[in-house]
Every structure is written in structure tokens, then in C-alpha cells.
Amino acid sequence: MIPEDLIKRIRQIQIYTSRAVNASFAGQYESVFKGRGMQFDEVREYMPGDDIRTIDWNVTARTGKPFIKRFVEEREMTVLFAVDLSASGEFGTVDKMKNELAAEFCAVLAFAAAKNNDKVGLLIFTDRTELFIPPKKGSRHILRLIRELLAFKMPKRKTDIPQALDYIARVIRKRATVFLVSDFIETDFKKPLSLLNRRHDVIAVPVRDRVEINMPSVGLIDVQDAETGEIMLVDTSSGRFRSQYGAHSSGRFDELTNMLRSINVDFIPVTTDRPYINDVIQFFHMRHRRH
Predict the structure, then answer these.
(1) pTM
(2) What share of the chain is helix, strand, coil (3-state, %, to 5)?
(3) Which terminus in the chain has less CB density within 10 A, N or C?
């Protein structure tokens, strides 16, 4: 039995995404992610005017007549959401946790993929692979992915992005669009991400909370690292502390974005304190202009 509160949350996300994934949004998705090349269709006899580069020499030699290979645009696409649900995602100071934002973000794009008749899969990871659901089509399948994202509960774990990337490389053989959704607390994954991006189209989705960007002045507070359990007492009323905190946060994010750019990985930053639909649409426009 699915708990009633989980059913309610799934329904809320379904209502929200049905509004977000309108005809315009779905059309922009299709224009950006509409297939990754050409696939073989048939062999037919050569006709004057055909491109001689498409001649199938094996069939031609076997039949004694020239035949060509015919290709059609590959419309169907495979989308995989690789979502980091480690302990650091159980944090949020606005109206949702980072993990909840990650689930909602994936739901919106998953429904857009379903409208485009794409296959959609899910990988949930921490410092190990927690759950893998192979890509399939259909709205019932999409609802299952959302349910798994929202219902996922486990003892606190750390993050291991390289192992998740290696797992994707092993199980996803056909070229796919991979959304890597994480708060990217871990930073040592440039090489495996670069290798995966050569085979697939990887898009990073950094998920952050506003307090992780700028610390407000609220006096003395205990700050706990969700993944290590370490607790530290900090004085947020100190302007010097807040300045150093902001500079450190900004520097880490700049390092991440510079690393992603250096290996040609696109990214869509999202935060818990503002709507992300505009960020996604802006990303669509950027990709459309580039193509």
C-alpha cells in the first residue's frame, strides 16, 4: 500500500507538471531533444541520382546489382535521470528540500519526454547505486519513477558520483540524454563525466538552497554536516563570517561551472527558493540557438 501522504504529493506534482508541460514547453523540449542521428531503415535498388556513398557493397556484390542503404531520422530518444539522493539533499529552508526539488524537476522533464514518446529511466544513487529502473515508455511508468523518487528513504549516506557515472556507462549502451541531478558536494568526477559525455549527452543539474549560497544573520547556530554528522557552532551575526562563507560558496560553484564548461557539459542550476521552469526554458532556447 502506498501511504496517503505520498499519494497526495504525487498528485500535487502531477497537477503542477501538467500545467508546466504545456504545448509550448513540450514543443521546445522536442525541438531540442528530437533524436540523435539517423537509423537504418531498408536496402533498396540504386536509382539514378542516389548518393553513391550509401551503396551497400555487400548486397551489391551478392546480387550483381547496385543497392543502397536507406536511413531515416531517429525520432525516439532515451532519457535517464541520475539523481543523487544522499543525506546532503535532506536540506531546505524555503518550502521544499533539495531532494524534493530534484524529484519535481525530474517529473516535469519526464512528462515532457513522455509527450515526445521517449523512453525514460531512473538511477537513484548515493555512495552506491540504490535503484535502477530501465528506460521505458508510458505515463504509468513515469508515475512509478516519481513515486520511487519521492518515497526513497534510507540511512544517511555520502555521495559517490564517479561510481554512478561508471554504472551508467555499463548499463546504458544506446546513446541517451542523461540528466545528472545533484548538489555536487563531491567535486572529483571530471574524468568519468567527460568520458560519459563522449558517448551520451550529459546535462548537469546543480540543486542548491539559498542558505548554501548566502548565510543569513541569525546569531549563534549549530551547523551539522548531513553526510558526516560533524557539528560546528558558528556565529552568523559576524559580517566577516558571512562574507567568507559567501565567497567560499561562490568559489565552489564557479569551480563546478568552469569544470563543466571545460568538458562541454551543459548545466541547469536550480534553487529551492525560486521557480525553475524559466531556467529550463532559457536552457531550451540556448540549445536551440546552438543547434
Answers:
(1) 0.78
(2) 45, 25, 30
(3) N
